[in-house]
Amino acid sequence: MEETNQKIIIKKYRTPTKEASDLKNALEEKGVRVLVELHDGFKHIDLAIPKAKINIEVDGIQHLTNPEQIVSDLSRGYYSHKSGFDTMHIPNEMIRLHLNEISSALAEASKIREQKIYLHLE
Asked: Total domain count for the chain?
């Protein structure tokens, strides 16, 4: 009997935070297609709206109070921008307090961006 050395690769998917999940669900209720924990080759993105080329990072307080995290976030945004995506950073607290307003505005903004992208492709 022949032996094989087969490698088994187990992909571990990151679990979105409650705030990221809440925002995703609210956007999907408004008809927006949202991807969760998308890996773009450089980093994981909390939420992505591909048709509108919008990445959304739902951030904890360390993204506003930790200098190293701030520098890291600025660098990470570069790779998204290079690929034509813009990144929004929304603090967890804002999602908790203003979920409906934020999801409504993002849904409308994504429609506007989609139209602009579509018009530029013609």
From this structure: 1
Where in the sequence is the domain holding 50, given as residue range(s)? 18-121
Has residue 79 been placed in a domain? yes
Residue range 13-23, pLDDT digits in tens: 578 899 999 99
3-state SS, residue 4: coil
pTM: 0.80
Task: Give the containing element (helix H, strand E) for 65.
Answer: helix 62-65
Q: What is the pLDDT of residue 8?
A: 39
Side chain identity, residue 78:
Y
Residues written for the chain: 122
Between CA 8 and CA 37 the distance in angstroms is 22
Residue 75 placed within a domain: yes
Q: Quick one: which of 12, 15, 86 has its CA closest to 49?
A: 86
Average pLDDT over residues 65-71: 92
